[in-house]
Structures are given as structure tokens and as C-alpha cells.
Amino acid sequence: MNHCEDNNIDPKMIPRTEEEIESIIKRLKRIEGQVRGVQKMVEDNRYCVDVLIQISAINAALNKVGFNLLERHTKHCVSKALREGNGEESIQELMHVIKQFSK
């Protein structure tokens, strides 16, 4: 499916490539597997510190995905808005999402 032709896409957005989508999904599935591993650790009554270390690794992996999306959004969508004269709104939106993401 060509995402550029999808009528449900926000006009502010530059659609991700198939490669970008595949990469994000691959990372998220890996994280999903890590979460399942932590669930199994809890079921097996594993040592708390070991569980906490795995949770920390999951948080780091999610943050990496999030920062990659933030970077892409800035380089593509915000850049597009600036070129089209809609930069102020896009920058405000970016700052809002950065504040949410950094909580």
C-alpha cells in the first residue's frame, strides 16, 4: 500500500516509508517480547533486581523508539511545515509532545 495515497493521512504528515514502518514494528515486537519475558520472570518469582533491570531495558528501548520518531517528525513534518509557512503551529505541537514524552 502506498501511504502517500491514503486519504486518512493528516495533511501535516509526511508518510513513513515501508522500511521505516517495518523497522518500528520490528523494534516494538522485540519490546513486546521483553515485556512477556518480564511477565514470566514475575510468574517464576525471580529476584526483584533482575526484574527491575529488565524493566529498565524495556524503558530504554521504548525511549529509543520514541526519540527516533521525534527525530523523524522534526526532520520531515516540522521541516515541511516551516517550508509551507505553518512553522509556528508545528513547533508548538512539537514542544507539547516533547514535554509529554519527557515526563
Number of helices: 3
Shape: elongated
- In CATH, the topology is named Methane Monooxygenase Hydroxylase, Chain G, domain 1
Work out the count of structural domains.
Answer: 1
Q: Which CATH architecture? A: Up-down Bundle
Structural class: mainly alpha
Low-confidence stretches: 1-7
For the report, how would you describe the main beta sheet? none
* Secondary structure tally: strands: 0
CATH hierarchy, class: Mainly Alpha
Supply Rg: 18 Å
Question: Distance between the terminal alpha carbons, to the nearest Å?
Answer: 35 Å
Q: Indicate the percent of residues in helices.
A: over 70%
Average of pLDDT: 90
Order of helices and strands: HHH
Strand content: under 5%
Superfamily at the CATH H level? Answer: Metal-sensitive repressor, helix protomer
Structure in words:
- This protein has three helices and no strands.
- The protein is mainly α.
- The protein has a single domain, classed as Methane Monooxygenase Hydroxylase, Chain G, domain 1.
- The radius of gyration is 18 Å and the shape is elongated.
- The two termini are 35 Å apart.
- The model is unreliable at 1-7 (pLDDT under 50).
Concise synopsis of the structure shown:
With 103 residues, this protein is mostly helical. It is built from three helices and no strands. The chain is 75% helix and 0% strand.
